[in-house]
Design goal:
This protein has eight helices and two strands; from the N terminus they run H-E-E-H-H-H-H-H-H-H. It has 165 residues and is mostly helical. The radius of gyration is 17 Å and the shape is globular. A two-stranded antiparallel sheet has the order 1-2. It folds into two domains: 57 residues, no CATH class; 105 residues, Arc Repressor Mutant, subunit A (Orthogonal Bundle). 25% of the residues are buried. Helix content is 57%, strand content 4%. Strand 1 and strand 2 form a beta hairpin.
Length: 165
Amino acid sequence: MNPEELKLFEEKGAEFKIKTTGEEITLDWLKKIVSIYQKRLKKLSEISQLTHFFFKDKLEYEKDLLRWREMTDKEIKVALDKLEKILSKIKYEEWKKENLEKILIPEAEEFAKRINKAGDRGYLLWPLRVALTGKRESAGPFEIAEILGKEKTLKRIKEARGLIK
């Protein structure tokens, strides 16, 4: 897309369609994705490998990837249940990275204390990252959740919980 086409695209507020999901996305949405991965990129060609999960309806990964350190399946399920409960109460207009972080960091600290792992927020935040991305490494879960939006975030948490028997 040349600069003139890009300008026209921005002015009209046109949308792209994701082939695999049928979901319509805007240039602003794509810019958000690129901005959170900009520092991680060595070559522009890596962008699709790092961000493909944004463009999929359902992620495929092994359930053990949800496990932070020596977490049990029961702890993973409890963490995912807690995340769903907390996040479902956040209003759509408040679904911003800063707000998600402000709410989830204290919850992660409290959760770690409750399972005798005080100081390790990974017991709540790792399963969130994996549920949203299906990856071991990614941008932060708060940025990703903001871009995915509330509905897709909750859907992925439910799907992750379904992996735990």
